[in-house]
Every structure is written in C-alpha cells, then in structure tokens.
Write a structure and sequence with these properties.
This protein has two domains: 7-103 and 294-312, Rossmann fold (3-Layer(aba) Sandwich), CATH 3.40.50; 105-285, Rossmann fold, CATH 3.40.50. 32% of the residues lie in helices and 15% in strands. The chain has twelve helices and twelve strands. Helix 3 (62-65) links the parallel strand 3 and strand 4. Helix 1 packs parallel to helix 12 (294-312) and helix 5 (105-120) crosses helix 7. The radius of gyration is 21 Å and the shape is globular. 41% of the residues are buried. The structure holds 2-keto-D-gluconic acid (8YV).
C-alpha cells in the first residue's frame, strides 16, 4: 500500500471528528447526505476501493458480499452487532470484518436503565398527559407504577452490555438473574444467579432486559409462549435487536395487560415499527439511540479507523471477527 492511501467507501455520514480523520488518512468516499445506499450503489461505490466502513443498518448479505470487487479486503462496521454482514461469505472472499465492541457498552446500558425506569414508572404516559394539557393535578392514585427495589431483573445475554446493566441495576436494589450460553465465572457473576434456560429464568423475573445478539436461534425468543412464562404484569426492555421479539405477541400481551409495560429502543424492520405499538400507552419507544452519545459515537468511529489502520499496516487487527 506504500505510496497511496487506502480507498474506503463510507456508507453513512459519521461524526465530524471521525470524518476529518478519515479524510486525513484515507481516500474516503463519504456519504454527506447520509442516504441509504442500495446494493447496486454499494457495489458501484466499492469499485477500486480497498475497504468499506459501514453500519448496522446497511445490510451486506452473502449475495451482496459476493458481488463486491476483489479490491475490497476489509469491512469495518460502525456497530458492535454484526448480524447484517455475512460472516461466511466475507472470509470466503478474503475479506476481514471488524466491529466496535466495548466503546458503546456504558451508553447502551444507560438506555436500558432509562427504558426500565420509564416503563416501570409510566414516564411516557405522564409526559403525554402534560403535553396534551390533560393533567388535572396531583392525585393519590394517579399514574401508579412499579417499584424496582427488592425485585428480580432477568438479563438475557450476559456479555459486556448485560454486565453493565447488572451493575447499574444493583444500585436500584434489583437482584440479578441471567441466562447466557455459558455461565460466567463467580467473580464476573458478582452474585447473579445463572439459568441454563429461559424457561427457568422467566418465571422469576418481573423485569427482563434483552442483551443478546440476533441470530437464527434467538429470533423471536420473546413470543406468546415465553411471555406466558413471565410473571403477571412484568416489564420487558429491549435495547439489543428488534428481531428478538415477536411484535404481535408482545403487542397482544401489552394490550391485554398480561405485561405491565415495555421499553423498546430497537424494532424488527426498523424504522418501520409495528403500528400496533403506536396505539399503546404502556410502551416507551425510542429510535435506536442506545449508543447515541457523542462520546460513544466518536469512539465507535475511531475504533473503526484503528482497525483499518492496523489492517493496512499489516498488523494484527484488534476487532477482527473473521
Ligand atoms: C449502532 C448498535 O449505533 O452497535 C450496534 O450494534 O445497535 C448501535 O449502537 C447502530 O447499529 C449503528 O451501526
């Protein structure tokens, strides 16, 4: 690569400081309008490029990866999740894929707690009451929600973000139960109770927060049958991926009062979320802002750049997934 800067197709507009560094060190093909590129535009934009810097909302399935020019040797995604990139097709074509772990852990855990509190304490309903000028004043029975202290929080997926949520939740007096593919060491568990299956976890958890990746095995893990296993009037929080939840089942459970409330930051098919959610008072909806702090988004960008730097310098690539 000596003598020429690597060419990088950048599929989204990125924070200013990240783009400034991109332009300084790479020949960057930016997307200043932040338009979603079609597969054809990605293939065309990647002609002669050495790498692609993409995001979790730009899908790179096998059919598209296979059409990329052979010049593309690395795909760096501006996300910790990587279900949008085919991790078999990419290495088969000699493409390294990287993600951005760690740097968004705290930001995303904050949003999980934000949603947990907001759902339990009916914050969305309260805000609507004020904005629509329907608040008639304080009443002893108005907007009574659920207290957290002394209850169980179930965490599905005890990775970096799950652990960060558990740390925060303990400060609210919640006891932690978790389900994970593998049990953590006692030091990492910090007193949390492990469940080998969802079936033993769910009945114990009036609060449940999802932190596992979307895979064929986890798709719709929250469905009619698993909701039935949860205690009456439980609260569900999802800051992971929309595909983990069967929307029809969740909406029915929220509408019928089987669940008390839900707090959702991610949706299957987002941004076109199921319209049923919009008719419910007991759901707090956020537009996928889990990692949306200035600190986290800059750090995600710089983490992508560091992976690209290492790759083109022929050094070990820290966040290589393939
Ligand atoms: C990203 C996320 O901001 O990192 C992830 O996997 O879900 C978000 O925090 C978003 O996906 C953009 O790539």
């Amino acid at each position: 690569m000596a003598g020429r800067r690597p060419v990088i197709l950048v599929t989204r507009r990125l924070p200013e400081a990240v783009e400034a560094r991109l332009v300084r060190d790479f020949e960057a093909r930016l997307n200043p309008d932040d338009r979603t590129l079609s597969p054809e535009e990605i293939v065309a934009g990647a002609q002669g490029a050495d790498g692609i810097l993409t995001s979790a909302i730009d899908r790179l399935p096998a059919a598209l990866v296979e059409r990329l020019p052979t010049s593309v040797r690395i795909i760096a995604t501006f996300s910790v999740g990587y279900e949008h990139i085919d991790l078999e097709a990419a290495p088969a074509r000699g493409i390294t894929v990287t993600n951005t772990p760690d740097v968004l852990t705290e930001a995303t855990a904050d949003v999980a707690i934000l949603l947990l509190l907001a759902a339990a304490r009916r914050a969305a309903e309260g805000m609507r009451l004020i904005r629509e000028r329907r608040w008639i004043g304080w009443r002893p029975t108005q907007l009574m929600g659920l207290g957290l202290a002394g209850k169980n929080l179930g965490i599905v997926g005890m990775g970096r973000i799950g652990l960060a949520v558990a740390r925060r939740a303990r400060a609210f007096g919640l006891q932690i139960h978790y389900h994970n593919r593998t049990r953590l060491s006692p030091e990492r568990e910090e007193g949390a109770t492990y469940h080998e299956t969802l079936e033993t976890l769910l009945p114990l958890c009036p609060f449940l927060s999802l932190h596992c990746p979307a895979t064929p095995a986890t798709r719709h893990m929250i469905n009619r049958a698993t909701i039935e296993l949860m205690p009456e009037e439980a609260v569900l929080v999802n800051t992971a991926r929309g595909a983990l939840v069967d929307d029809e089942a969740l909406i029915a459970a929220l509408r019928g009062g089987r669940l008390f409330a839900a707090g959702l930051d991610v949706f299957e098919g987002e941004p076109d979320l199921h319209p049923g959610y919009l008719q419910l008072d007991n759901v707090v909806l956020l537009p996928h802002i889990g990692s949306a702090t200035r600190d986290a988004r800059n750090a995600m960008g710089f983490r992508c750049l560091y992976n690209l730097d290492c790759f083109f310098a022929g050094k070990p690539v820290p966040d290589a997934l393939t």
